Amino acid sequence: MTRIIVVGPLKSSYIKDGVRQYLKWIKKFERIELIQLPLSGDLNKTPPSIYKDKDFKKFEKYFPDSFNVLLDERGEQMDSIKFSQFYEHIKSSSGAKFINFIVGGPLGHSDEIYNKADSIISLSKLTFTHELAVLILLEQLFRVNKILHNETYHY
């Protein structure tokens, strides 16, 4: 099973509508679980390193039996075809029970999360909010499934 694990709630109605729509379309191919973790406190009152460490502790329980893909603008960039090959390879040969796509919070990721990552990929060199990153990732996972099932994926 694939999980998208994100720090912070999805608040914007247009994002939530898009996420629901993509999850509905993807359901034809596979089940994807969206896990929204709470923020780790007040950004103005907590030092960044402590904030990121708190985020890591929330992610930690999802690491066992998982192939962990960290989203980071410095990660490997792929086109949709290569991403579909990457995804299929993980599903078929990693032996993992779960594929976790990890979307960081407002301060990014802790060093510990980078150390636990099996792969680091980038959606773009641009930085996106966690909400947009989730929506873009879901769009790409829908496209991946269309590609892997030999269906038209350009609209």
Write the layout of secondary structure elements.
Elements: E1 2-7, H1 13-26, E2 32-37, H2 48-60, E3 66-77, H3 80-93, E4 98-103, H4 111-116, E5 119-122, H5 130-148
Quick structural overview:
With 155 residues, the chain is of the alpha/beta class.
Describe the structure.
The chain contains five helices and five strands; from the N terminus they run βαβαβαβαβα. The chain has helices at 13-26, 48-60, 80-93, 111-116, 130-148; strands at residues 2-7, 32-37, 66-77, 98-103, 119-122. It has a single domain, classed as Alpha/beta knot (3-Layer(aba) Sandwich), CATH 3.40.1280. Helix 1 (13-26) runs parallel beside helix 5 (130-148) and helix 3 (80-93) packs across helix 5. It has a five-stranded parallel β-sheet. It is globular. The chain starts with a strand and ends in a 7-residue tail after the last helix. Strand 3, helix 3 and strand 4 (98-103) form a beta-alpha-beta unit. With 155 residues, the chain is an alpha/beta fold. InterPro entries: Alpha/beta_knot_MTases, RlmH-like, tRNA_m1G_MTases_N. Its EC number is 2.1.1.177.
Q: Which homologous superfamily in CATH is the superfamily?
A: SPOUT methyltransferase, trefoil knot domain
From the N-terminal CA to the C-terminal CA, the straight-line distance is 27 Å
The CATH class assignment is Alpha Beta
- Main sheet summary: 5 strands, parallel
Q: Would you give the CATH topology?
A: Alpha/beta knot
Low-confidence stretches: none
Subunit structure: Homodimer.
Subcellular location: Cytoplasm
Catalytic activity: pseudouridine(1915) in 23S rRNA + S-adenosyl-L-methionine = N(3)-methylpseudouridine(1915) in 23S rRNA + S-adenosyl-L-homocysteine + H(+)
GO molecular function: rRNA (pseudouridine-N3-)-methyltransferase activity
